[in-house]
Amino acid sequence: MQIFYSPSSPFVRKCLVTAKELDCFDEIQLLDSSAHPIDRDKNILKRNPLGQVPTLVTYKDESLFDSRVICEYLNKHKKGNLFGDDESKWDILKEHAIADGIMTTTTLIRIETQMRPTELEWKDLTHGHFDKICTSLSYFEESDEALTRPINIAQITLACALAYLDFRLPYFEWRKDFPKLAEWFNVFRQRPSMQSTEFHLKS
């Protein structure tokens, strides 16, 4: 298998952590790519009309995207249980969606505050994005089950989302208001799958 990859994408990292937890990372070749909303990578576009990472090429030469689809494919490929059983499945999928939303919203804040010309920044929108992140973090802070279930796709996504907040918005001191979540993250981030997939910028 192959995956179009960026070392600074939280959605790519979610897939890589998932692959490591399922013990299939060594089956995947990382394809360096330059996904960009304006200067789009033609190599990705040949496989994915959205031109985004991650994009997975399967053993059957099929292209799969986005990260939610890729992670479910890998889970099925390895007969894993990262998406829960009949009793927990829908809660895990709901929490997966919330954690995915944190990553998406963090990306939107970065675009608005770091990539858009300063005179065009919509500050009220940025404040709304931060509020969305805070209400999402509150959900996990107040949910014992979400943080104590056996490892699952929602927890993997949440850990990648929190790491991405630290990576892209280091001034956002979320740990002060969400101490239980911070304690959980400090433990989860020590997993080998997280340690070996740290974010970094291309040199």
Automatic annotation (TrEMBL):
A GO term, aspect molecular function: glutathione transferase activity
Alphabetically ordered keywords of this record: Transferase
Lineage, top ranks: Bacteria, Pseudomonadati, Pseudomonadota, Betaproteobacteria, Burkholderiales
Signal peptide span: none
The organism's place on the tree of life at top rank: Bacteria
SUPFAM superfamilies for the chain: GST C-terminal domain-like, Thioredoxin-like
This protein's record includes keyword Transferase: yes
Matches recorded under InterPro entries: Glutathione-S-Trfase_C_sf, Glutathione_S-Trfase_N, Thioredoxin-like_sf
Descriptive protein name: Glutathione S-transferase family protein
Residues that span the membrane, as ranges: none
